[in-house]
Amino acid sequence: MRRFLPVARRSPTNWIIVIGLVLAPIATLIALRSGTPVRADALGLAACVAGPLLVSRLLGEANYDVMLAWDPDAMPADWQAVRRRYFRLNWIRAAATWAAFALFWAAAYAAWA
């Protein structure tokens, strides 16, 4: 983690993925304009922004800072609670991501059905 997180947090790949994650649903909203596909797409965009983006930025990053400050030879007493929080945040992001994916597929199906 000590070598991975600092590099991963500032990787250009993250920015490309985030920009695509937000711009693609916005472009779809503009193209579709109304109906069920637009509602599903808008909900998927909201799930993307609320889950992976906001949870990562507001909660995950702060948790990473705590973990990176640890000395591996002298772990703090609450390290297990911080680790549980790390995994809980990952599950929240995963659930939001999969919900958004399902909503995008529903929007695509409704648009072409």
Structure characteristics:
elongated; 113 residues; 4 helices
Report helical residue fraction: over 70%
- What is the approximate shape? elongated
Count the DSSP helices: 4
The run of helices and strands is HHHH
Sheet with most strands: none
Name the poorly predicted regions.
Answer: none
Count of structural domains: 1
Q: What fraction of the residues are assigned to beta strands by DSSP?
A: under 5%
Rg from Cα: 18 Å
Total strand segments: 0
Backbone structural class:
mainly alpha
Separation, N- and C-terminal Cα atoms: 46 Å
Could you write a compact summary of the structure shown?
This protein is an all-alpha fold. It has four helices and no strands.
Description:
The chain has one domain (about 5-110). It is an all-alpha fold. Helix 2 runs antiparallel to helix 3 and helix 3 (about 35-70) runs antiparallel to helix 4 (about 80-110). It is built from 4 helices and no strands.
